[in-house]
Each structure stands twice: as structure tokens, then as C-alpha cells.
Design brief:
347 residues, alpha+beta, 17 strands
């Protein structure tokens, strides 16, 4: 069994055998700080079952072909692709492979509305994340990002409806059974796949070993994505612990251990957001600018526009959870949500 667990090596091209019949293949994400997205190949008697598809790029398909050849397989053996969520680095190559090979593609039922909204991205309806950003008090940043959308390589035709929408339950095929567990938070319809017999959790972007996933990053109105995400994390602990097979980063030995770290991280961020409010009334943009970001504590001003959007929207998600917990009050003022700590007052 080959292993590439070091932080810098997990994205190296090629197949990594996790256990007999289960292989991790990192596929490239050009010009993306995540570096690569992991897809997983499950060998069955009648072909290959794939977990996540990757981004529909020529270099991604070549990397997949090369990795499969090293295992003695080819693309034509892929029969089914189970996708964790709708984002292009997970879903679009699944669609492309279906067009090429006739493979069947499956997606969580909670992603249906988000998929329906994709056609509106280019018809004048702004991405929901930009609406959240405007409510967070960063309309100028939303304007800059909206202009950049015309140059981001988006192609509506990269997405199509799946062959099947799946919900909670157990999928049985060949020698394997995968439990489908809806885990809203990163997107509304995110699902993970748990192989209870083998002790493997195909976690998508729900549980990542080195970073915290963005919250509510989708077209559909996110509601309270952080509250959903925290509930989804706690849900993981109701199942037996398993090896963590994430979409970004190396395989690690305990999903439960990482879930505990993520829950603790969000407890800290909730406390920081509350402390930053102090006795003032602030919008999410103002709070986000006073926090640091990433594991390296990068100042907000040093983030690029895209990551500033993620930071503001995540801050809004934390503040909205504090509102739901009764610790903070919120009032809409000119389309901007302004937050005040309970017992506090306006600056």
C-alpha cells in the first residue's frame, strides 16, 4: 500500500491505494489554492465505482487516465459516479465522463434547487453568495466580484441533471455498501458516503484535514448554513469512527478526531465574533476586517477578493448563529444586516 500523508505530497499525481480495491487519485485544480481534488476509485466485479468526478479539464482527464492505467484499468470501466456536491471541482467531470462513457451519475437530492439556479447565473440574477455579501455590508466587493464573473471560465453546459437524486439510506452494489448521509452546510445538498464495513468515510468537503470548508457557498439561499454545518458535524459522531478520505488533503486515521477539531474551531470563531462586536453595532464586513484568517492568521486586507468574500460570508454565518442563540440582535438597515450584542448598544 502506497501512502502520501505529508501535507505537501498528497496532491502529487498518481494513484494511492488506501486498502485493496480502494484508491485515491488527486486531480489538478489549476490556479486554485487547494491544488488538487481527490476522487476515489472502488474496484467492483463489473467495473469501477467513482466517488466524485473532478473538474472537467483536459489535464484532469489525463491525470485520471494515467492513474487508472497504473492500476490496470481504463476510463471505460467507470460504471457509476457518486458525487458529494455540486461544485465544479466535484461534479463537472462526472458529467463529462457520462457523455463520453455512459457512466451513471448520482447527486444528493438537496442540490436540485441549486442546479436549477445555474441557468440564472448569466441571466442577470446574482449569485446568492454575492447577495449575502451585500447584506454583510460589502457591496463594493460584491460589485468587483460580479464584474469578474464574466472572466471566470464558467460554462453552464458543464452541468446537467444527474441520473439519480439520492437521499439518506444505503446503496448496495457488488461487494460493497455505502451509507449516504446528508451533511448540509458547505452546500445544502452535500452528502458523504460511509463504508461501514471497511471503516472508510468519503467525506467530500464536509470534513477536511487541514482547512475548514467554506459555509453556504452555493446558489440556493443558504438559510443558516453554519448551524446546519455544526449539526452535520455532530451527526458524524453518531456513527462509528472511520478513516477520513477527504476531497482535499491526505487520508487521515480518524474522522471523529478531525470533527472534534472543527467543532472547537467554530466555538473559537463564535467567541471571537462576539468579542469583536463588543458594545458596538457592526455589519459582518466590519467584524471580518478585524479578524485574522487561515491557519496562518492572515489579515483580512491581505486576502484576495474571492477569499475576502468567503471571510465576510463566514463571519455573517457566525453572527447569524449568535442571533439564533439569543446572544446577538440583528436589524436590517438599508439592505445591510447590523448586529448588536445583547445588552450592548450602538457605537
Amino acid at each position: 500500500m502506497t501512502t502520501r500523508t505529508e501535507r505537501g505530497r498528497w496532491a502529487e499525481a498518481g494513484a494511492e491505494t488506501i486498502q485493496p480495491g480502494v484508491h485515491r487519485v488527486p486531480l489538478p485544480l489549476p490556479n486554485d489554492g487547494l491544488r488538487a481534488v481527490n476522487v476515489y476509485l472502488l474496484e467492483e466485479d463489473d467495473g469501477i465505482v467513482m466517488i466524485d468526478g473532478g473538474w472537467a479539464l483536459p489535464q484532469s482527464r489525463r491525470a485520471l487516465e494515467d492513474a487508472m492505467a497504473s492500476l490496470g484499468h481504463d476510463l471505460g470501466q467507470i460504471t457509476k459516479i457518486f458525487v458529494t456536491h455540486i461544485h465544479r471541482d466535484h461534479y463537472t467531470q462526472a458529467v463529462a465522463l457520462r457523455r463520453l462513457l455512459g457512466s451513471r451519475v448520482y447527486l444528493g437530492a438537496g442540490e436540485r434547487h441549486g442546479l436549477e439556479l445555474l441557468g440564472e447565473v448569466r441571466s442577470g440574477v446574482p449569485v446568492t453568495s454575492l447577495g449575502v455579501l451585500r447584506r454583510g455590508g460589502a457591496g463594493h466587493l460584491a460589485d468587483r466580484l460580479l464584474k469578474s464573473l464574466d472572466h471566470d471560465g464558467f460554462a453552464e453546459t458543464d452541468w446537467e441533471a444527474p441520473d439519480g437524486w439520492i437521499g439518506a439510506g444505503v446503496l448496495e452494489f457488488g461487494r460493497r455498501a455505502l451509507r449516504v448521509i446528508p451533511t448540509p452546510g458547505h452546500t445544502k445538498g452535500h452528502v458523504v458516503y460511509l463504508d461501514e464495513a471497511a471503516g472508510l468515510l468519503f467525506a467530500g468537503d464536509h470534513v477536511l484535514p487541514h482547512i475548514t470548508p467554506s459555509i453556504g457557498f452555493e446558489l440556493a439561499e443558504p438559510g443558516l448554513p453554519l448551524a446546519d454545518y455544526l449539526d452535520s458535524l455532530r451527526l458524524m459522531t453518531r456513527f462509528a469512527d472511520a478513516r477520513l478520505l477527504p476531497a482535499h488533503g491526505p487520508v487521515t486515521e480518524s474522522a471523529h478526531a478531525r470533527v472534534a477539531e472543527l467543532l472547537a474551531h467554530h466555538d473559537v470563531r463564535l467567541a471571537q465574533a462576539l468579542g469583536t462586536l463588543g458594545m458596538r453595532t457592526l455589519d459582518a464586513y466590519a467584524v471580518a476586517r478585524q479578524l485574522t484568517w487561515t491557519r496562518r492568521d492572515v489579515p483580512f486586507a491581505n486576502l484576495d477578493d474571492f477569499n475576502q468574500m468567503l471571510a465576510v460570508n463566514e463571519t455573517a454565518a457566525h453572527l447569524d448563529v449568535l442571533v439564533a442563540r439569543g446572544q446577538v440582535l440583528v436589524a436590517l438597515d438599508g439592505g445591510v444586516s447590523r448586529y448588536t450584542r445583547v445588552g450592548g448598544g450602538a457605537a
